[in-house]
Amino acid sequence: MAQQEEWFSTWFDSPYYHILYSNRDDRDARLFMDNLLAYLHPKPQYKILDLACGKGRHSLYLNQLGYDVTGIDLSEKSIAYARQYENERLSFDVHDMREVYKPETFDFVLNLFTSFGYFETETENVVALRAAAANLKHGGKLVIDFMNTDRTIERLVSREQKEVQGILFDIGRKVENDFIVKTIRFKDKGRNYCFEERVRALRQENFMEYFRIAQLREVEIFGDYKLHAFDPGKSERIIFVLKK
Question: Under a CB-based contact definition with an 8 Å cutoff, are residues 65 and 38 in contact?
Fold first, then answer.
């Protein structure tokens, strides 16, 4: 592991991350969950792992529908927030997705909302996938929801300003060394801040190679939250369903 702090461990634990993205619409997330559940048909006793769960919005919704859900995330502050909702069938834990959490425990592992590709090396991506697979029972399924990278790059807005809760965020975007980099600058209470988001520009062929190494078998590829088939030129997302 790198000695210096990784960008996601500082930014995701910052209160400003949650301020900037506080207007995210949960309807999309719920629509996706409803469609995914209709497709996966989980049995009531199945265990679901929400990998890189953030503050737990997907976990919470799945649990409200009656499922046994565990959410894990590296952000201590996000997990501390999510824990207020814990019950007998909903729990949260601080955990690094590059390490196996509970071997052969879960029927489904869900990695949603582009919560992958943050690591500096490709090896770490494979390590994270292998760990995700190790958490699955034999025959269990892993769902990875990622951006359609080429379409995202094509539509990249290089600079924008956004005011949220009285803070003016100056956001720059670029592609650099095979990463999509977002730089977020702002001032609050007389202090200047600068954070960065770095997501590897992964394409279908990169994932396929990772899956081969991690011994995961592709079941289906969807292109949006309504689960239409993936179209490289048009789809907003690339959603993989994989089997161990």
Answer: no
